[in-house]
Amino acid sequence: MYYLGVDVGSVSTDIVLLDKSFSVVEELYLKTRGKPIQVIQEGFKILKSKYDDKQITAVGVTGSGRNITSFLIGADAVKNEITAHATAALNIDKEVSTIIEIGGQDSKIIILREGIVLDFAMNTVCAAGTGSFLDRQAERLEIPIEEFGDYALKSTSPVRIAGRCAVFAESDMIHKQQLGYKQEDIIRGLCEALVRNYLNNVAKGKEIIQKVFFQGGVAANRGMKAAFESALGFEVYIPPHYNMMGAIGAAILSSETVKKGEVTKFRGFNIAQSNVLQSSFECDGCPNRCEVVTLEENGNTIGCFGDRCGKHSSKMTV
Amino acid sequence: MKITFPHLGNVCFAAKALFNELGIECVVPPPNNKEALEIGTLYSPEEICLPFKIMIGNYIKSIEEGADTIIITGSCGPCRFGEYCELQMNILKKLNKKVDFIVMDVPSDIGIKEMFSRIGKISHSSSKSKKEKIKALYKALKIINMIDDIEADAHYIAGYEKNTGEAKRFLNKCKRDAINSKSADEMINILTEYKRKINSVEIDKQKKPLKIAIIGEIYTIIEPFSNFYIEDKLMDYGVSTKRTLSPSWWVKNTALSPLRINSLDIKKASKEYLPLCIGGHARECIGEAVIAKNEGFDGAIQIFPMGCMPEIVSKAILPTVSKDLNMPIMSLIVDEMTGEAGYLTRIEAFIDLLERRRKSVLFRS
Question: To the nearest whole number, what is the mean pLDDT of chain B?
């Protein structure tokens, strides 16, 4: 009996299987590359060879692609990333009071007290400091992203980089390179600038107290962890499955819905072989002009959403 | 004279009925949508607030349908709304649109004589008798009060209904039928009928739905397109919502303001945090948050357009209010650049937060 959790994010799609005690038995980390459906099919192909549909007790989805995914795979719980991340962190440690989560395009702060989410914030106007930006900088410097953080740790005297805006941070980095600063000092400076940006924008006005969890893809960057620790003045913990926390949270949340006596809506691993088509159109039924998305599997419509009035989505057969 | 006006929530119902009764031709602009916003963004200054842009979109669409006179309300307060009419006149002039503006404002700002001369401009083009004109105005006021009441009822009942979505369906149908009615009397009949229908929606009194107050800048909370239909979404989630600011509230508030007896409860509630009027509805925003707590609400959502000065001030005060009252308050900022996905995530997460908070409080006691 397993709980399946899927987190379809901007950069990566994570799939996990949890056992009854919520320990991870299987994890898949795939790049979304803007094609959520194909990536899930790819992931399911891998899982299909090892597991049977009947072994899945409940399915939860989260991430920015949660709606389309829930139609595709049949989800019992469709939850936002904030709740999912908080649930996963609390499952590991009830004492956690702050969660710093930095993913591909989003950065978030979640404030918890005594096991309840008290407050949260997300980046609104700027994506500096998120995974995509770091990816791009690593590529520009021709350093594999996996080693990016280690470079930062080698630095002895970090350079100050302007971190208010991703574009300006990049120009400033180039400028500092032209001046001849060492690469590791620039990378360390960048990490510090991004942490400053995070603390001043996303975490503005929030009380960060211990114990702090750092999760999301960017937590892999040891330079960022070090920069957070030096800015905050205390240790920041990175949970073991830091890049899977969203999916783990979704799986745990799904177990709660099915507990109430429902049978899972899971549509089976076989969708890996289906021919799935997605299309969108602008409805001209009224001046609202909703953008409606439809999802077809082997010629049958399995999902339809985006219309406000329910004209299209209520026609659904499933 | 062919009159038009920018959208502001349910004002279009009352305005349509009023001009129909007065026998003045009027153009109701198409409901706010992407097209209105695109047109508005094209012609407006980049850094102006969202309502301005949507309003420009409304004007252009109405002018295409032959409107030649625009009625808006003015203000001489400290917020940018006071500049709207002048800037908008300027923009339309540059676009070579031949339209008249009639700016309605309170006598304390423009003088009673000027106010009567402006009202005169409209009233002279009506061939009706004085008695009929007063009757028309009375009916329009009745309509705005009724539709705002119906909307408020539907938003509140949505948390208690037995068949999910019933209140929302009636509300949408009510608006559709009302705007298509031929006369003010017909509209009043339709509204009376739907008021009865919405209030007879089967409810479950045992339910304890989440209750959220919608506070913030008046345009962005009243005009659903500008806030991504947040109230509809909350109805779908089975949350009861309350919003104090509405066109009918505004009419009452403006009428009572010369006597300084407007919104006394709000003024009293906000006294500790913001005892002054700083423009816009910042003081109301704070006051409503305090009142919401006293009425047993679980949380409040503040919405305002990017760059809204009064609401930025209240946003800075709200965390203190939230801490003192032990009630979560979330701020959402909207403009044409706002992405819907992140916006929805915030709303969902806020509802989860309120839900889980309540559950664990129940466990402890």
Answer: 90
